[in-house]
From TrEMBL:
It holds the Pfam family Bac_luciferase. Gene3D superfamilies: Luciferase-like domain. This is Luciferase-like monooxygenase. InterPro entries: Bact_Lucif_Oxidored, CmoO-like, Luciferase-like_dom, Luciferase-like_sf. GO terms for cellular component: cytosol.
């Protein structure tokens, strides 16, 4: 059964998580260190997610971080998981990613989402009078594709750089709407199963059933993002995972804080309802030692048949985080 993992690409989703006692200025060099580590371990991509107004997430400007990571690595693909397109003018996104792809040819991915990446008040601060921009998401994706197209050279509005550059576009989502859009446009689909597992299986089935081959992709391609905390033993992994459990509890309760250190037990830290909500959000999470990670990944791939898995790991200690990604890579290659 080992072969079920051997041909599955594995990648990294980084939120530039800020841990207690540190600032984003400390976080970003750690991201670069992790990206170099991931590159050596055979990871395929390193993506940043756009979030705003969150003190524990430093990836509010993913385009800048993509340039930072791509400039400090050599082969790994770097991209957005994703850029929240309604927050931006498609032309500006085309120019920014055209610039990145000109600097780092063949290595830049553009993942697009329609959510604000924050709360509604913050979305208003970002979008201003353009609060209905999410309804234009399909048309804005088409505008981006047009700006990247070589056929746009006769248009009065052109993306320079960007025009004529092959920049893969991915549709990100956590709902059936995103699955329908990705299928209709013949684009690869990345699902946010690391925090929104409810519609995961239904969405990827819908995407596959309705997929229309395009000039970009001839058959469906699904990335699933999952939470992973791996360590040398199950006990140590479960202890380290209390950091992400506390992190998600902050999301559930609206009381966000910097990523806390691990604790011996979550008993007394969360109540029954908080625990239920956290565990539901962490449906697709793997915590364990090498053999546990391998077995759970085999079961996950067998159930979902995803084409690629993307790992996010909220681990307090940087060295433990590096070790977690190392163990996961070993599990995928054994």
């Amino acid at each position: 059964m080992t072969s079920i993992l051997n041909n599955i690409p594995y990648s990294v989703l980084d939120l530039a998580t800020v841990v207690q006692g540190q600032t984003p200025a400390d976080t970003f060099p750690n991201s670069l260190d992790l990206a170099r580590h991931a590159e050596r371990l055979g990871y395929t991509r390193y993506w940043f997610a756009e979030h705003h107004n969150m003190i524990n997430v430093g990836s509010s400007a993913p385009t800048i971080l993509i340039g930072y990571i791509a400039g400090g690595t050599k082969t790994i693909r770097v991209g957005s998981g994703g850029v929240m397109l309604p927050n931006h003018a498609p032309l500006v996104v085309a120019e920014q990613f055209g610039t990145l792809a000109s600097l780092y040819p063949g290595r830049i991915d553009l993942g697009l989402g329609r959510a604000p990446g924050s709360d509604q008040l913050t979305a208003m601060a970002i979008r201003g009078e353009n609060m209905n921009a999410a309804f234009n998401f399909p048309q804005d994706v088409e505008r981006l594709q047009q700006y990247f197209s070589a056929d746009n050279e006769h248009s009065k509005v052109r993306a320079v750089p960007g025009e004529g550059i092959d920049i893969p576009i991915w549709i990100l989502g956590s709902s059936l709407d995103s699955a329908r859009l990705a299928a209709a446009k013949g684009l690869p689909y990345a699902f946010a199963s690391h925090f929104a597992p409810t519609y995961f299986l239904e969405a990827i089935a819908l995407y596959r059933q309705n997929f229309k081959p395009s000039e970009y992709l001839d058959k469906p391609y699904v990335i699933s993002c999952i939470n992973v905390v791996a360590a040398d033993t199950d006990a140590e992994a479960n202890r380290l995972a209390t950091s992400v459990q506390q992190f998600i509890k902050g999301v559930v309760t609206g009381k966000r804080d910097l990523l806390p250190p691990p604790i011996d037990t979550m008993e007394g830290v969360w109540n029954y309802f908080e625990q239920e909500a956290v565990e539901q959000m962490l449906t697709y999470a793997i915590f364990g030692g090498p053999e546990t990670v391998k077995q759970k990944m085999q079961a996950f791939i067998a159930e979902t048949q995803v084409d690629e898995v993307m790992v996010t790991s909220h681990i307090f200690d940087h060295q433990a985080r590096l070790r977690s990604y190392e163990i996961f890579a070993e599990a995928m290659k054994r």
